[in-house]
Design goal:
The structure holds two protein chains of two kinds. By secondary structure, chain A is mostly helical. Chain A contains 20 helices and two strands. The two termini of chain A are 21 Å apart. By secondary structure, chain B is mainly α. Chain B has a two-stranded antiparallel sheet. In chain B, helix 3 runs parallel beside helix 14 and helix 13 runs antiparallel to helix 14. Classes of the chains: A mainly alpha, B mainly alpha.
């Protein structure tokens, strides 16, 4: 590795430095404000570090990592999402009894794992990144350790994460046993020597096991059972982090693996993905229908959205990367926004989070800005024009149509209609006048959290009405990935 | 540029109304009226500029703008105005005025937000009538739903939540079908030409096999059929119209239903001429069923608003019949019918809304003999009921007569069956007048007659209807250019519609 190799992994180095600095700062003396400031500044430096790095991209850094525009784009997305989550958490953590400093540390380490994932080009870095991410997430989910629900959710996540890791490892081992390589690029080369007509059992089993492991992390049906419980138990900002950073990084990796290793050509693979997509859309939306807990509802809606993402995943060529990436950006903005509202509302309510649908009645009349933002986020999740969700849905439909996977397109339409119903249920609750004597939200909205929500809403509208700059950026990203 | 202002003016007005509404209940109303007036002046100026000879069938649009929007996806901000759009936008603005004035005393809570939604809906409707890029069209199509949903869900009557959600699910669900069809059309076109575009004219050139064309056409048709509404898809209509506040009902019946008809005229038929021709008998049959079934349902109602709502099903059946009969006469009739129905039904909803505001009931079993206490309301109610049943000399008659005449040439059976609708409509219209205004006075104790504010609104609508009925020639002139323009587009860009 030479100098430009170091520049290529600059964001990773800066992030590692930030982790160390924050850890040392906590060791010298607990100071919430300083910790938060250092963490956010560090992440912003990471974002800035992407610019010099993009000049040397694409570049292979050791056999483990590849730094190309695709990796850099997703790094930027993950850094931005982490910053948003940290900003939203600041007021929330300040009002809680637990010492808040380690929360930042865990988020930073989890971000490091996620960033390693999106740049990984090798099974080893894939697994290392994943474990770094999962173990920090475990700490984050069970962060309010004096409460029963978060700890329960943490244990659930721990067990399922280890099982899925076991599946993943076994799958990797099988593929290694068959092909003798763990590098994605070499796998592609070796695969082309296999006889495509007669499916190779080792290879297919390995692939299925890897997909199972990834499916757990993405919480697609039938590996979705943990999601609602974990979302419900985890603190709202952590739920946002799990939904966005963990799943986003995983999906980015899945896409890179499929594109680089050229997996799609193998008989049952597209059908398998289509079935999982359809099942996720239908099951996620149907189970969300009757939820009265907003966090559970968002969990099921997230399962459905991962299904839509898999429909976008079905397309081929540049459209595939473009569709998946746009949808992921949109999904990030709206999911962080929706959980952000819960976070901000729950700030002053230290005993429990405000997650019951009834507590949201009349929100828009008591807190017009918060209620309006929540309604906008939900409408975007439902895919209504003017928002990013609409363009995302357009991409998903376009991808499904171009792959002529009509069942997936129909499932997407049916799912969207069902989805609309439960998003509207929440919007109706927000808009109906509150019953007399309902609990009003006493505390003021934390300034930082409010500003973050405003920024997210602006992005949601801005990139929903005029997505051209983002689409342009994604197309450059996609071009480099397909060339390689 | 002027076309963009047509959309932006109500949008800006709505946002301003929303902000001022936090302090004051009067400003939003006046702001809305001012913005509508500005819009009306813009469109009248356009009309005056291109009067007479300028709108000839030589095929220029009255105005158009074509800007880049999302170039990577071939999506453009392409708006165009022809005679047909112009007439429908005039109707939009007219009914917009009526709605604002009609809700002057009805809406007293959250006035700012109400006018925000009202103006946003109008902006969306105007956008739908102008869009020439299919993506843009769908954008506006969806955009008008959300504020309409809020209008019903927040200011509606007893079962408003149910009605609002039903309305949204029906229209959004069918809209997504259309969206999938739009995307599929664009992708098929991309495979043929290598250019990804959503442009109306470019997509009209796409060569499709008969089966594909039929499926895509059905995707469009179902979306428009739900809006229109065509009979198997009409169940959302009665609930939504009944539970909406007066302004919501006026806009739903007067405008949102017209977007369905406009969509058929502008998109479903010209984009898929061969499939539409194959499908025409089915569509005409559905139209006739709508005429008769809607009238029967209307007759059976006790709720005044439901009655008026079901008359829409019947009247829009004529429009569907006219569109798919496809002759110039029938198309002209359909256009007139759209305008006349917007006015007469809008007026009936305002009348019924006023009665409800005064008497707190819409149940005809609890009404009667209103004429003696409120002669103005009675006379106006009689007028619009008669307009609705199609009395010669009023706009509805011209529309229905032309549709039937035009249809008779191509499908005499449907025309004869449709004529029965005129008979049935007499029954429901007269029974409505009888039950509400004549007989023993029951619940009219506290009834005050129409104020001068209402009289101005109603007077304007009456005069317009009489004008449409007695001298519809200006409308024909304007619309004929629009219709011929469409037909020219079809024939020019699709010279061999039968080929695969």
């Amino acid at each position: 590795m030479n100098g430009s190799g170091l520049i290529a992994i600059l964001p990773l180095i800066v992030l590692g430095g930030t982790v160390t600095t924050v850890m040392l700062a906590i060791a010298f003396g607990r100071n919430h404000r300083l910790t938060a400031l250092l963490s956010v500044l560090g992440l912003m430096l990471c974002l800035i570090a992407i610019w010099p790095t993009s000049d040397v991209a694409p570049r292979q850094v050791t056999p483990l990592f590849v730094i190309d525009r695709y990796a850099l784009f997703y790094m930027g997305l993950i850094f931005a999402a982490s910053i948003a989550v940290l900003l939203l958490s600041y007021g929330y953590l300040a009002a809680r009894p637990e010492p808040p400093e380690e929360f930042y540390l865990l988020v930073l380490v989890a971000t490091l794992g996620a960033v390693a994932l999106v740049a990984s080009d090798h099974f080893a870095s894939f697994f290392l990144g994943l474990e770094t991410l999962s173990i920090s997430l475990l700490g984050l989910i069970a962060y309010p350790r004096d409460h029963g629900k978060p700890v329960e959710a943490g244990v659930k996540y721990l067990i399922l994460a280890s099982i899925s890791s076991a599946f993943l490892l076994f799958g990797m081992a099988l593929i290694y046993a068959r092909l003798g390589s763990m590098e994605f690029v070499r796998i592609a080369a070796l695969l082309s020597t296999l006889d495509k007509a007669s499916p190779d059992l080792y290879w297919l089993t390995g692939l299925a096991l890897i997909f199972t492991g990834i499916g757990f992390k993405l919480s697609v049906v039938p590996f979705h059972m943990w999601a609602p419980d974990v979302y419900e138990g985890a603190p709202a900002p952590v739920a946002a982090f799990v939904a966005v950073v963990s799943k986003g990084a995983m999906f980015a990796l899945l896409l890179r693996y499929f594109v680089t290793a050229n997996v799609d050509g193998f008989g049952p693979v597209p059908i398998m993905i289509e079935i999982v997509a359809i099942a996720s859309i239908l099951v996620g939306n149907l189970l969300a229908l009757l939820q009265n807990n907003i966090k559970r509802l968002l969990a099921y809606s997230s399962i459905a959205h991962l299904g839509y993402l898999l429909v976008a995943f079905l397309a081929s060529g540049a459209l595939r990367i473009e569709a998946v990436t746009y949808y992921l950006v949109a999904y990030t903005v709206m999911t962080v926004g929706a959980f952000g509202i819960i976070t901000v509302l729950s700030t002053s309510n230290a005993a429990a989070e405000i997650e019951d649908l009834d507590a949201y009645r009349g929100l828009i009349w008591r807190r017009p800005w918060l209620g309006g933002t929540f309604a906008v986020m939900l409408l975007s999740l439902a895919g209504i024009p003017l928002t990013m969700g609409f363009i995302g849905k357009f991409y998903a439909i376009a991808a499904g149509v171009s792959a002529t996977m009509w069942p997936a397109v129909i499932a997407l339409i049916v799912g969207s209609i069902i989805g609309l119903f439960y998003y509207l249920r929440v919007i109706v609750a927000i808009c109906t006048p509150a019953p007399e004597g309902a609990t009003a939200y006493a505390g003021a909205v934390p300034l930082v959290g409010g500003a973050t929500l405003a920024a997210l809403t602006l992005m949601l509208f801005g990139l929903g009405v005029y997505p051209t700059p983002l689409v342009h950026l994604i197309q450059i990203t996609a071009a480099q990935m397909t060339v390689r | 540029m002027i076309l963009l202002w047509l959309i932006l003016t109500p949008l800006i007005g709505g946002v301003l109304a929303g902000f001022t509404g936090r302090r004051n209940n009067v400003w939003p109303r006046w702001l809305s009226l001012v913005c509508l007036a500005i819009d009306l002046m813009l469109i009248l100026a356009l009309w005056a500029e291109h009067d007479g000879a300028a709108i000839t069938p030589n095929g220029t649009w009255l105005a158009q703008i074509d800007w880049s929007w999302i170039p990577q996806l071939g999506i453009r901000l392409h708006l165009g105005l022809d005679g047909l759009s112009l007439l429908l936008i005039l109707l939009t603005l007219g009914l917009g005025f009526m709605s604002v004035i009609a809700s002057w005393s009805e809406i007293t809570e959250r006035v700012g937000f109400f006018h925000f939604n009202l103006m946003l809906t109008l902006a969306g409707v105007i956008g739908v009538f102008l869009a020439l890029d299919l993506f843009l069209f769908f954008f506006f199509w969806e955009l008008m739903l959300v504020p309409m949903y809020f209008l019903i869900a927040v200011w509606g009557h007893e079962r408003r939540i149910y009605a609002a959600i039903k309305f949204f699910l029906f229209t959004q669900g069918s809209g997504l079908l259309m969206f999938a069809a739009i995307v599929a059309l664009a992708i098929f076109n991309y495979r043929q030409t290598g250019v990804l575009t959503f442009d109306y004219f470019a997509l009209a050139k796409t060569q499709l096999g008969p089966t594909t064309q039929m499926w895509l056409m059905l995707g469009f048709f179902i979306a428009f059929a739900v809006k229109l509404p065509v009979v198997p898809f009409h169940t959302w209509l009665a609930d939504a119209h009944t539970e909406a506040p007066t302004a919501g009902s006026v806009i739903l019946a007067g405008l949102l239903l017209k977007t369905g008809a406009y969509g058929l005229l502008r998109f479903a038929v010209p984009l898929f001429p061969a499939a539409s021709a194959t499908f025409a008998p089915v569509a005409m049959a559905l139209g006739v069923i709508g005429i008769l079934y809607g009238a029967m349902l209307a007759f059976a109602q006790d709720d005044m608003k439901r009655l008026v709502a079901y008359t829409s099903v019947s009247h829009l059946g004529f429009v569907l019949l006219g569109i798919y009969a496809g002759t110039a006469l029938a198309l002209q009739g359909a256009v007139i019918q759209m305008l006349a129905h917007g006015l007469s039904t809008g007026a009936l909803f305002i009348l019924v809304g006023a009665l409800q505001e005064k008497l707190h009931t819409r149940d005809m079993r609890r009404l009667g003999g209103l004429w003696s206490t409120a002669p103005r309301i009675g006379a106006i109610g009689l007028f619009f009921a008669i307009a609705s049943l199609g009395l010669p000399g009023l706009g509805n008659f011209v529309g229905e007569f032309l549709v039937l005449l035009g249809t008779y040439r191509v499908a005499s059976g449907f025309a004869i069956a449709g004529t029965l609708g005129l008979v049935v409509s007499t029954i429901y219209a007269l029974s409505f007048v009888q039950r509400v205004f004549h007989g023993e006075p029951l619940a009219s104790a506290a009834l005050t007659d129409f104020s001068s504010r209402h009289m101005i609104v109603m007077g304007t609508m009456i005069m317009t209807l009489v004008w449409l009925g007695c001298y519809p020639q200006p409308v024909f002139d304007t619309a004929s250019a629009g219709i011929a323009n469409l037909q020219r587009v079809v024939s020019e860009h699709q010279p061999h519609p039968g080929e695969p």
